[in-house]
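Data availability excerpt. The first of two example chains:
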Amino acid sequence: MDPQRRSGWLEIAQTLAAYVAVPVALVYPFGFFALFVQFTKYFYLDFYTAWYAASLVNRMVAIGQGVTILALALGVSVLLSAKIAQILLNHAKNTRSSRLRRIFVRRRFVRKHVRGAKLTILLLVTLILYIAYSRILAGGRVSWFVLRGRQSSECDLDQAMRHQLNLWPDSLVPASIFLAGCSLGGWLIYRSYQGYRESIDAGSRRPPSEDYRLRPGFFNRGVTEGWVRSGLALAYASSVLASIVLAAYTPAYVPYMTLKPSVEYLEGKGSTNNRFLSHTEGQWYLLHRIERDSDYNPPRWSPPNYNIVSVEEGQVKHVRVSPNPPRASRVEPLPWRLGVPLKNKSCKPKPEGGAEWSIQLFNYP
């Protein structure tokens, strides 16, 4: 094979490995681990039970979990870190202005504040978009209702925080990790390119092009020339860490499941005691919540007790898997009265203690 052609194929392989192969390889392991984390945090399963429950979930469901939570974060981290590096590189490029312009305009002062303003606006917009995306994940659908959020029907604080994605720390903590990692990754790309540029200028080879526009050539050169790898690795690592934290804070989105010994049509809301895991090899696998008196007495509320149950196909004739209700209070309402209030919520304080509450309305488990 011609050496030049071989070099071209090698560059294509390196680019695909950096931007496609790595995210694809991370999707399923992350999806499985995200399910495991949610089973331990939301359903209060121990380590081994949660690991076994995650292993029972269909492989495509785990991949879908990885795609919805991680894949978009990885793609945005690449663009965000590259954009930050571009802003820094353009600032460094503009320092070589003419002497006349440096005399009449304080360009260094102006450039410094313009650069800071650009980076601040970029990070602020990304923060808002990340928070919106986290709320969509928790709500399970794209809608204005989910973005606004609604007040929980629970009067008990522990129950409300368990069933809802809160702005702090549930959304802001992973968003901060994501932004910090991408910012540092962009700075590493900028510093690596500066070092690569100096090494090229010191040699006899022709200096590289100074086109910093975010085009395919920019990302391709970054991988083949090596100056984007360290920043890209850090951006990927921060995306994975932020996504794990977000998965831990997000209420587990596992469909409800109703089992009946006879074929019948069920209207309205089904049972909320069972959560569907998978159906494989003639077995239904589900998480069954054992009801206790403390479940309906918020002042004495304790973590729910879920067990893994296996049911043969022949034992049931009617199985209903219900999605998350579209009006469920899965997301904390936005501040400044931007959220959706809950109507007919009635909480009465106990006579012997004003700090403890009892609830008269139960909508969701």
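And the second chain:
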Amino acid sequence: MIDKYFKYPVWWDLCISFAVIAILSLFLKVELLAIPTKDKVFSVSGDIPPISFTAAGFIITLLAILITFKSNTTASKKDYSESNSVFELFFVSDLYTETVKQFKKCIKSLIVVALSGYLLKLINSWKEVEVLFFYSVAGVLIISLTLWRCLLILNKILNLQGQE
């Protein structure tokens, strides 16, 4: 299941977000749910872009650290031996390449969430609280799923260390 998620993570994040928005829309129609006050919706929708940019910054930092450590390693797949460290094992494994790809996808996803929030506030007429409400829900979900994906990747790296 997780492998399917990692194959197309951004697509899955969007599908999950759209499914939740569809359910919330249905709940709004049958009046099982009410949109929060205008002030709360504006407040939350205003918090999402900075949170998204901050999370992207942390992932960029982590990615830069990984790339820096990779550039300092001398091991290669051909001459790897048991005397090499776990980090060197990670850097010559396919997990390193996959980690870099996934982190890049995470960064792109978070930046799109942040920029769409700012653009939405610029072009949205202030009467459309529903649009900002749904953006807030989708933004929180995508940020959460993206950070969860990063934690899963880091957990795989830690599991690699446990195999030592």
